[in-house]
């Protein structure tokens, strides 16, 4: 048994890695659920242990010294190896926790209706699903797989497309029974449904449909996009539907696409996996399942 290891204070080491990776004591404090003062004290303790500075401190930010950057390169890889080893150990237990963070509307409209198929195929994997529309660098809770729009290059992550997306008007078939809709010009007699988070979608489509100055009979704006789709299902008006997220409703006849086009290009759906989790069997199984054409068991 080795007794000659020289190890710095491990709490201070964990704090240093978070602060150095984030280039911010404030972000490290948020990530580790500590105060800014606690982060500063732990970093100072590590610097005292080494006998040299690891950070250059200015009024509003911190940067690594040359020594600090070299140390981060080594211990960052060590933390990754510890994380991977821990994951492999957990996989050998009775159950494996898989943390998935996905966009809220995507989760509600696409992922949840299909998730039982993954659970049936992988009964030993427990999916812990959280939703957020925040950029990944603003997420404080850990995740194994994140689902966001793309393509994007996110440092420290492997990105992979699994679901292309476009946008086209959709509405309830009951609405068309009350008021016909055969050409884009007919939208002047209808109510258009908007999402506050996507204010430019309808104007872009009207330009593409060559009716840029069309004035609809009414407009309703909702705070969240999934409320816009629900309003379309309930016959309130016409929404700009993401084709992937409304495919089930169109197939079941709950929604219709009154026009064949044009279809607007939209951000497609990608999985973003932290580099340290890329070889995890549960992560690979989940991402592979997402890319399969038969993801849903009917």
Secondary structure layout plus pairing:
Elements: H1 10-22, H2 25-32, H3 36-50, E1 55-57, E2 62-64, H4 66-91, E3 96-102, H5 104-121, E4 125-131, E5 145-150, E6 157-163, E7 166-170, H6 173-178, E8 191-195, H7 201-208, E9 218-222, H8 225-233, E10 238-242, H9 243-252, E11 264-265, E12 268-274, H10 281-291
Helix pairs in contact: 1-2, 1-3, 1-4, 2-3, 5-9
Descriptive notes:
InterPro entries: LysR-type_TF_proteobact-type (IPR058163), LysR_HTH_N (IPR000847), LysR_subst-bd (IPR005119), WH-like_DNA-bd_sf (IPR036388), WH_DNA-bd_sf (IPR036390). Pfam families: HTH_1 (PF00126), LysR_substrate (PF03466). This is Transcriptional regulator. One of its GO terms (molecular function) is DNA-binding transcription factor activity. Keywords: DNA-binding, Transcription, Transcription regulation. By secondary structure, this protein is of the alpha/beta class. The protein has 3 domains: 80 residues, Winged helix-like DNA-binding domain superfamily/Winged helix DNA-binding domain (Arc Repressor Mutant, subunit A), CATH 1.10.10; 87 residues, D-Maltodextrin-Binding Protein, domain 2; 100 residues, D-Maltodextrin-Binding Protein, domain 2. The strands form 3 sheets. It has a 5-stranded mixed sheet with strand order 4-3-5-12-6, covered by helices on one side. A 5-stranded mixed sheet has the order 9-8-10-7-11. The longest helix has 26 residues. The chain is elongated, with a radius of gyration of 25 Å.
């Amino acid at each position: 048994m080795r007794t000659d290891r020289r190890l710095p204070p491990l709490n201070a080491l964990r704090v240093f890695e978070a602060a150095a990776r984030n280039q911010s004591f404030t972000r490290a404090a948020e990530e580790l659920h500590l105060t800014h003062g606690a982060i500063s004290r732990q970093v100072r303790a590590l610097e005292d242990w080494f006998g040299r500075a690891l950070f250059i401190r200015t009024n509003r930010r911190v940067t690594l010294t040359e020594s600090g950057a070299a140390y981060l390169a080594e211990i960052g890889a060590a933390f990754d190896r510890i994380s991977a080893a821990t994951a492999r150990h957990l996989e050998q237990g009775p159950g494996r926790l898989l943390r998935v963070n996905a966009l809220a509307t995507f989760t509600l409209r696409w992922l949840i209706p299909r998730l039982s198929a993954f659970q049936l195929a992988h009964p030993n994997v427990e999916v812990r699903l959280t939703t957020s529309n925040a950029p990944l660098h603003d997420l404080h809770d850990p995740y194994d797989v994140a689902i966001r729009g793309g393509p994007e290059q996110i440092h420290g992550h492997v990105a992979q497309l699994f679901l292309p997306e476009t946008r086209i008007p959709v509405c309830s078939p009951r609405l068309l029974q009350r008021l016909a809709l055969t050409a884009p010009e007919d939208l002047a007699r209808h109510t258009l449904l908007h999402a506050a988070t996507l204010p430019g979608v309808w104007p872009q489509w009207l330009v593409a449909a060559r009716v840029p100055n069309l004035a609809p009979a009414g407009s309703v704006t909702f705070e969240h996009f999934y409320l816009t789709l629900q309003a379309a299902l309930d016959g309130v008006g016409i929404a700009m539907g993401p084709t992937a997220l409304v495919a089930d409703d169109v197939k079941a006849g709950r929604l219709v696409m009154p026009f064949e086009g044009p279809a607007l290009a939209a951000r497609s759906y990608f999985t973003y996996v932290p580099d340290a989790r890329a070889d995890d069997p549960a992560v690979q199984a989940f991402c592979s399942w997402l890319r399969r054409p038969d993801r849903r068991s009917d």
